[in-house]
Design goal:
Length: 81
């Protein structure tokens, strides 16, 4: 039997990977700006990226993780109604 929770997680991860793939062609400046916007949305007021978001790979991982979480929240809210 497949767990419904695992199905949701898999869907979220797949959509998050799609977002990351779309951004792989983005410039470093665009990725940095996107990461800063995510940080602002979650309450951080810094104008520079933290040390752990300096490389392109770190930025893509951060964006993918955030997208997975965000899509999870949307799917969880939809499944309640």
């Amino acid at each position: 039997m497949t767990s419904p929770v695992m199905t949701v997680i898999r869907v979220n991860l797949e959509r998050a990977k799609e977002v990351a793939q779309e951004l792989e062609q983005a410039s470093y400046t665009q990725l940095s700006a996107y990461c800063l916007e995510i940080l602002r949305q979650i309450g951080c007021s810094d104008t520079e990226l933290p040390v752990n978001l300096q490389t392109r790979e770190q930025q893509l991982n951060f964006i993918t993780g955030f997208a997975s979480y965000a899509f999870g929240e949307v799917l969880n809210v939809q499944s309640i109604h």
